[in-house]
């Protein structure tokens, strides 16, 4: 996401690479799984767990409420460079940049329970004894205990194998997590069951609190139990309530039967919901749950069959595909109840309610990938966002659980929902979505709303730009659009364009014209004296350094990096700066193109990437952050589409099969989805609309199984026979055997396709360079 502190320096690749599916750490040269092997064998959950990638290696099922994973002391959970585990907690988000989740860390121990701070009772481990694959995780602790984790949608299942002892403990720590814990309650209900209620807050900054309810059921009675409050441990105690450290321990005699299993169910509604989820999904053995999780992942990954490519390429691709399906997450219980953003209990009708919305990130890549590969879930996700507006009065910006965090800026909810509309996912909800989007686009949330929405909308609507007001006090927790007025203006204008297209389709002609006019507001912050976008202050005066590499008022970037964030009107943007030649010269400088041709990998690591979270004072492409995700595809609009392939393929080298092998925080699947789509050769170049740009695939063949409900053909095959580092340039393209010269497709055309085939060669060609080949400006696409 945006605040998601990012990563990578020149020394990105480490020597140790984790194998998948239960294998030991070995050199990266391991042979790829044979064609008949499960695709889950190609997934390495440890990718991104070091150097601020902030992924997690633990157990989850696609979009599950539970992400059961170890925490090592890093502020977002697990870090591969650390060697102590504080606990296995139940809630994680892939690639966030601030502490979030980590609720109820559970750790097996032996002996007397004397410590209550998990930083003191943590257990040492070695990666040599660690295994991870989709849906399961296992580690041998140096205390002699083996811990295994798996998950269903709403439960986490754990199995611990202890040494022979009469003091085998499981510690359930309710009072410590990855964010601020406000208050907790722990109850030992009987000799097999522990219940907790955990109220927490925070994500980069404090937010409204949320409450998570858990119930843990063990497979056999414990011999004794107790609770702790602060540093005091009380054996025999059945309940503890605290605003500080708080938890429970349960003890088993493992002198004969050394194995203990337990299932923990979650609910964001109440204790009854957790108990219901336990009854609905619990009662199965660890092995049965793990086998089902593995089958679920295999079925999901099997919708994308890639052929060709090297071993590392295939592993990084399927690992990215795996991470693309980790979020958003189920928020409703088995009975359909969920806690809305009004903090009231609601019940879904005909859909699953989802939560966790890193929209500033995911609207650019992951939402489109899910629309393509998981449209039924993507429809429910879009409906869930509409319900957030109806429950709370406003659309989300960055939502966690049941609350708004207001992290990041702009108006990401609009392109997220308009994308769902353009992909055909909102049938029956079109006008409900439009009403929410129109209110959001034309107003500002009231003071008593937790949301900030388009915070600078009053000035934007009056003057055509969001002002940059340095050091303005924040009215609400989270980020402020006034702190980033220039980039907020670009984001508002992008959203206006997408909403205008939707309004036109729905027959709201006056609105359509109004939003289309506002979509041109990117021009209001263009400084002709510098040739770049530049922030304006409240009086309208350009402000901050004139050097675009030192510019102010851009969120996690500079004017150089935001200059191409005009996907609604790239032809107009190109004309604004002086035409295609000027644009191509600037793009070449931005991507260090001449250096890239000589050494793509070195350019990516030493010129583009400048270290974790280094967003500012740069004039080069930043592939590890969201503002630049579309930038390589700008060449499709400047008559040089082969350069898009050059840049994209160089950026793909940043994804490796190592703990440091993901370029940037994953941001709930954003970076992973970029890798997947760019590797296939189709990319959403106008996020919020239905335009897919084309570049050379890295695989000779990819077979996509598609949902016939949305894609009547049920499948799409993309081929590029002979594609390689050398033969990477498109010579021609064919749609179902018919020659095709444009550099983009629409979703409507994808629905009718069976095959997209590219002929490739070693030199650039004339393909895609004709006057009508480029993606058109949004206003003229229909």
TrEMBL record:
<dbReference type="GO" id="GO:0006516">
    <property type="term" value="P:glycoprotein catabolic process"/>
</dbReference>
<dbReference type="InterPro" id="IPR008928">
    <property type="entry name" value="6-hairpin_glycosidase_sf"/>
</dbReference>
<dbReference type="InterPro" id="IPR050883">
    <property type="entry name" value="PNGase"/>
</dbReference>
<keyword id="KW-0732">Signal</keyword>
<dbReference type="GO" id="GO:0005975">
    <property type="term" value="P:carbohydrate metabolic process"/>
</dbReference>
<dbReference type="InterPro" id="IPR012939">
    <property type="entry name" value="Glyco_hydro_92"/>
</dbReference>
<feature type="domain" description="Glycosyl hydrolase family 92 N-terminal">
    <location>
        <begin position="42"/>
        <end position="267"/>
    </location>
</feature>
<dbReference type="InterPro" id="IPR041371">
    <property type="entry name" value="GH92_N"/>
</dbReference>
<dbReference type="GO" id="GO:0000224">
    <property type="term" value="F:peptide-N4-(N-acetyl-beta-glucosaminyl)asparagine amidase activity"/>
</dbReference>
<feature type="domain" description="Glycosyl hydrolase family 92">
    <location>
        <begin position="274"/>
        <end position="761"/>
    </location>
</feature>
<dbReference type="InterPro" id="IPR014718">
    <property type="entry name" value="GH-type_carb-bd"/>
</dbReference>
<dbReference type="Pfam" id="PF07971">
    <property type="entry name" value="Glyco_hydro_92"/>
</dbReference>
<dbReference type="GO" id="GO:0030246">
    <property type="term" value="F:carbohydrate binding"/>
</dbReference>
<protein>
    <recommendedName>
        <fullName>Alpha-1,2-mannosidase</fullName>
    </recommendedName>
</protein>
<feature type="signal peptide">
    <location>
        <begin position="1"/>
        <end position="28"/>
    </location>
</feature>
<dbReference type="Pfam" id="PF17678">
    <property type="entry name" value="Glyco_hydro_92N"/>
</dbReference>
<dbReference type="GO" id="GO:0005829">
    <property type="term" value="C:cytosol"/>
</dbReference>
<dbReference type="InterPro" id="IPR005887">
    <property type="entry name" value="GH92_a_mannosidase_put"/>
</dbReference>
